[in-house]
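pinned: reference chain
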Amino acid sequence: MTIRLAVLLSGSGTTLQNIIERRDAGELDIEICCVIGSRADAYGLERARSCTIPAVALPYRDYAEHGQYNEAVWQEIRKHDVDLVVLAGYMFFLDVPSDFVNRIMNVHPALIPAFCGHKMYGHHVHEAVLSYGAKVTGATVHFVDDQYDNGPIILQEAIPVLADDTPDRLAERVQELERTLYPRAIQLFAEGRISVAGRKVTVS
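pinned: its structure tokens
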């Protein structure tokens, strides 16, 4: 079954590009029906347009308060009969309406529940991992709920932290893992193989 995706982003769109390439390679049973950017200059919007994917800029700064912004985002998503919302470097908290519980995915560059939560994103995560002296880190794909990095975990894989790692080197290896893990979770959803009971996700 082909599912309809909305992709939300705030930056360069490398995660979107990976999803597009895997779709084109026949690895993902998806139609990307809209891309929404929280900044007008987000390069991910250009990536979408170059592939004839509808792309809309909804700059966060144009809205007086967070609730108004979330309402605008959901109004746009709901125009497209979306099955799954994918966060791809989206930098703002997304309120979860009741009909989209367990229908919004995110990927986090660490092993939740470690090194996660408000303001823990990108290099902040890798710097914290190295500062703490952790021996392993990794990536986590999870459903989004009403708290930062808190929803049920779908997939999670670890990689070692090496003695000579810098935040940049660690980020490269974690991002490589994300490029595999995130599409795998999306395809499992497309195949109807994910079930959720409380916090526990089962893959059939």
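why pinned: The chain has a mean pLDDT of 97. The helical segments are 14-24, 43-50, 66-77, 123-132, 167-190.
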